[in-house]
Every structure is written in C-alpha cells, then in structure tokens.
Amino acid sequence: MKLINWASIALAAFTVLLTIVFFTWWAMKDSVVFGSEKFDQTKWMQAAATIETECKRGDMAYDLQQHILGKGAPREAINVLLGRPSYEDAHSIEYDLGKCMHVYHGLLIYFDENNRLANSRISSH
C-alpha cells in the first residue's frame, strides 16, 4: 500500500513538473525560436526571394513584432517597411517567415477600420 501511495505522489509531482516546463516553454517560444536577430529591412526584403534557408525571416520576426511594429502604425508605412505581403485582405496581411522548427510560420498583422495596426502575431500553418 505504501508503494502505491509513493508511486501516486511521484506521478503527481512528475505531472506538475512537466506541466510547468511545457507552459514555460510555450510562453517563451516566440522569443526563443524567432528572437535571435535584430530586424534589418534589407535582409528582410532579400529573404523574401531566397530558398537557401528554411527559416528565412523567422530570426527577425520577434524583434520586428516587439520593437518595430507599433500599435496604430498606418498600413501604408508597414507596407513600405516590409514590402509586398504573401497574403492580404481587407483587415490583415501576412508575411511568410519560412519553415521554422519543422512548421511553416507567418507574421500576421491585423488592422482596424482606419487601416491602423491593431495587433500582430506569429502564426503556424
């Protein structure tokens, strides 16, 4: 009976530890996966046409999202800064980041009714 109690306690502790590790990684994954390089407009534009690297723009995406793209920025200014998007509709645009960590990612930028930046996020496909 003591062995079952100890096994139950060990399993519960392992489950809690695994949950903490997973959610810590999940909360920090954008900065870890996409945050290794500062945004460089020239590299960003050149990376759009390259097939040499899989995660072609991913390294700059976190810096771009956190430090360059400010809420309320006009859509035209973002188009000038980042170039032609991979996808565009009335209220959002998306830039291809490439295949990062075995999954294709994009930088999604959402606009409000006045064509001002409302939100941005890194999405996986």
Radius of gyration: 20 Å
Q: Helix tally? A: 4
Number of domains: 1
Task: Determine the strand fraction and express it as a percent band.
Answer: 15-25%
Overall mean pLDDT: 86
Distance between the termini: 49 Å
User: What is the number of E strands?
Assistant: 4
Q: Based on CA inertia axes, which overall geometry fits?
A: elongated
User: What is the structural class?
Assistant: alpha+beta
Order of helices and strands: HHHHEEEE
Q: Strands across the major sheet, in which order?
A: 1-2-3-4
> Which stretches of 5+ consecutive residues score pLDDT under 50?
none
The largest pleated sheet is described as: 4 strands, antiparallel
Helix content: 40-55%
Notes on the protein architecture:
The chain is of the alpha+beta class and 125 residues long. The chain has one domain (2-124). The protein is 47% helix and 22% strand. The chain is built from 4 helices and 4 strands; from the N terminus they run ααααββββ. It has a 4-stranded antiparallel sheet with strand order 1-2-3-4. The longest helix is centred in the N-terminal third of the chain and has 33 residues, at 2-34. The mean pLDDT is 86.
